[in-house]
Backbone:
C-alpha cells in the first residue's frame, strides 16, 4: 500500500500545497526582475504575458513598477529598498557636547556641595558665637 500527498484530477497529478503558518514578503533580485522583463518583452502572441505572470506568480503591477524603475535608471532601483526611516548622519560634535554636558552637571553638583558647606559653617559659627569675617575683611 502506497500513500502519497498527490491528488489525481481527471488524469493530471497535482501535489498538495502546504500553507505556511506565517507569510513572508517575497523579495526579488535585480537579475530576476531583468530576466522577467526580458521574457515579457519577448512575448509576441496574445496571452503570453499572462501565462508568464501566472507561471511566475506575479501581478501585472510588478511588471509596470519594474519597467518604471528601469526607465528611471535607478542604480539600485531593481533591488528591494530597505524599509523604515533613513538613518540620520552622526553629528561629529555630538560626542563633544555630551562630554561637556556631563562635565557641567558634575561642576554644578560640586558647587551645590560647596554652598551647603558654607551654609553649615555659618550655622556652626552662629551656634558657637564666633563671628565670621565678611567678604574682604581680615579675621
Residues:
Amino acid at each position: 500500500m502506497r500513500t502519497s500527498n498527490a491528488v489525481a484530477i481527471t488524469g493530471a497529478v497535482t501535489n498538495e500545497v502546504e500553507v505556511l503558518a506565517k507569510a513572508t514578503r517575497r523579495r526579488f533580485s535585480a537579475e530576476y526582475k531583468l530576466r522577467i522583463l526580458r521574457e515579457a518583452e519577448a512575448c509576441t502572441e496574445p496571452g503570453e504575458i499572462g501565462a508568464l505572470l501566472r507561471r511566475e506568480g506575479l501581478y501585472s503591477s510588478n511588471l509596470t513598477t519594474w519597467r518604471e524603475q528601469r526607465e528611471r535608471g535607478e542604480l539600485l532601483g531593481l533591488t528591494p529598498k530597505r524599509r523604515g526611516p533613513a538613518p540620520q548622519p552622526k553629528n561629529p560634535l555630538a560626542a563633544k557636547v555630551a562630554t561637556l554636558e556631563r562635565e557641567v552637571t558634575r561642576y554644578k553638583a560640586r558647587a551645590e556641595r560647596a554652598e551647603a558647606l558654607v551654609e553649615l559653617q555659618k550655622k556652626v559659627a552662629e551656634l558657637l558665637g564666633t563671628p565670621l569675617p565678611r567678604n574682604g575683611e581680615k579675621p
